Amino acid sequence: MSRRTSLHPKKGEKEQGPFYRLFLTQLREIYDAEKQLIKALPKMAEAATEPELSKAFETHLKETKDQKTRLEKIFAELKEAAEGETCEAMEGLIHEGERVIEEVDSSSVKDAALIAVAQKVEHYEIASYGTLRTFASYLEYPTIHKWLQTSLNEEGEANKKLSKLAEGTLFGEGINKSAVNE
Ligand SMILES: [Fe+2]
Ligand SMILES: [Fe+2]
After folding, report:
1. Cα-to-centroid distance, 12 and ligand 1 (Å)
2. What is the DSSP letter of 5?
3. Please, what is the Cα angle at 34 between 147 and 106, to 5 degrees?
4. Residue 74 within any structural domain of the chain
5. Greatest CA span in the chain, whole angstroms?
6. pLDDT digits (tens, 9 = 90+) for 114-124
7. Ligand 2 centre from 163 Cα, in Å?
8. Contact status, residue 127 vs residue 178, Cβ threshold 8 Å
9. Cα of 69 from ligand 1 centre, angstroms
10. Which ligand is nearest to the CA of 119?
11. Each residue of 5-14: pLDDT tens digit?
12. 3-state DSSP assignment of residue 10
């Protein structure tokens, strides 16, 4: 069960300034988001019809689990409890993915729609880790900055891979082309 983190320190919590509280709150939101994705990505992998897309979701599931562990390392480094704070944005995006799985019948169109949702997810994560990494450097946590940068890079690569699957490469047509012709 997650709870709202106040931007003001509570009794027994580390007494730090409001910018640190903001950093911690945002870490807890992305932690919750990664946990939601660990549940959602297997469903997306199963729903994808193109094997390459399914494989991409499975590969990113492994990275997502690593990102969750990395966040736990960060909480430990900060001597804070590793607890999530409900990420409503991710709940909304995952709900959108569930609707695609339920409502889109045509296979290539479904794949194109799954990529669309997945790219929204990656962009949300890219924005979150980008901000967190920058906050970490202002708060002078160089090791945490480095770990957040690693996750940021993984999200960026995942997004690029999805673009390639949708748009194709020099060597093959993408999912969008099949969707147009379906
Ligand atoms: Fe992630
Ligand atoms: Fe991701």
Report:
1. 30
2. P
3. 130
4. yes
5. 61
6. 999 999 999 99
7. 14
8. no
9. 11
10. 2
11. 556 555 555 5
12. coil
